[in-house]
Amino acid sequence: MYTESILIVDDEAEIRSAMSHALRRCGYSVESAASGLEALEKIKNEYFGLVITDVKMPEMSGIEVLSNIKKISDDIQVIIITGYGTIDNAVEAMREGASDYITKPFSFEILETAVKRVCSVLNNRRQCKELSYRTNRFSDYKKIITQDATLMKILDRAKNVAPTKSSILILGESGTGKELLANYIHQNSGRAGEPYIAVNCAALPENLAESELFGHEKGAFTGAANRKLGKLEIARQGTIVLDEIGTMSMPLQAKLLRALQEREIDRVGGNRPIPIDARIIAISNIDLKKAVKDGTFREDLFYRINVIPFTLPPLRERKSDIVLLAKHFVQKYASLRHRNVKDIADDTISILMGLEWKGNVREMENVIERSIILGSGEILLPEHLIIEEPDPLKREAISINAGTSVKDMERQLICRTLKEVNDNRTHAARLLGISIRTLRNKLSEYRLEQ
């Protein structure tokens, strides 16, 4: 059940205190503000589903507070408290978008009933948004394009564990689709209507990483002019993805471990814990077990995030997906880049099948996009492919003794090239600068046919 965050706005401290106590007793998360200006500042920096405000306040009236809240977010519900005999204020408030009103004096039972009614509306809206979000994003599931049996089993398992609260660790080489799997898990969970926040731990400056994840209070350090919510807090009951978690500093790992254990965080400069309920999905392209042995990653944090592990296979182990992905990317970038490419030549497919794809799906996508942009015609031909070849300086040199014949040199060169491209003849011919027919003739001449 979602614990609603409520903000009470009233210039009288005793009323704020009494209402806060009553609503906390009902299980709500409650904060208060002594003025409309203070309330608006809090709303800009924190999430509140419901605001309860008095109408009559100095500096800014409750109606003005309501009007400003609706400018910030139409999703925030507002209950107006109006004095006896000022029903006109209540009518005006309802016209401005208030969800309900309470007339003074009122009992706590009346307050609780009104709050429960509005929170019920909030929950219904949240569920409707979740359904709409799932429907609108259904096509996004297609981003995980595969017919590979291993990956299909991974997706089935991911769908089964998605509704749980358990932390998940996704491992795999760069470009294998780890964040796509994280998003797939989020979309198939009960959290799909809540925020999905991805954080690249490697891109966080060390001096700001703690503030980015956990937030900070106003004045916590030089330059902290306002309170800032951290990503873990902003995620609320959604999903937070910690990409490249293996790059996180040891002090930050310790603070994250505590957050996962206690399900609460401390903002930098804060003096009270903030409860969190986001699902953690950690992603890494390095061997975290080795990092634990090397002393660069905490063993206790590893076990905390490794509750449900997934390891994505590299593209070179998903041969059946190469043609599928290539055709998908051709269709995608022909449309995006306004090109007339409609299909891929068989020789082009042969080259793609023979590549090692160290950058996996991301590398393939880049190759296809570049080829679509710089190529021409309706068919993607081998000459359209622009592939970054390995650094020649890093290749093993071919040793040629004095007196070696040109034919022997040519034979060695063909053998080495075929080895480089995993015996893909179409690709080898392209690298050698000869036609596939010429290569076949050479192989026959030098009796290299298998």
TrEMBL record:
Residue span, Sigma-54 factor interaction domain: 144-373
- The source organism is uncultured Desulfobacterium sp
Q: Which CDD domains match?
A: AAA (cd00009)
SMART domains, sorted: AAA (SM00382), REC (SM00448)
GO-annotated molecular function: ATP binding; sequence-specific DNA binding
Q: What is this protein called?
A: Acetoacetate metabolism regulatory protein AtoC
Q: Which Gene3D superfamilies match?
A: 1.10.8.60, 3.40.50.2300, Homeodomain-like (1.10.10.60), P-loop containing nucleotide triphosphate hydrolases (3.40.50.300)
The UniProt record lists the Response regulatory domain at: 5-119
The biological process GO terms on file are: phosphorelay signal transduction system; regulation of DNA-templated transcription
Residues recorded with modification 4-aspartylphosphate: 54
SUPFAM superfamilies assigned: CheY-like, Homeodomain-like, P-loop containing nucleoside triphosphate hydrolases
Keywords assigned by UniProt, alphabetized: ATP-binding, DNA-binding, Nucleotide-binding, Phosphoprotein, Transcription, Transcription regulation, Two-component regulatory system
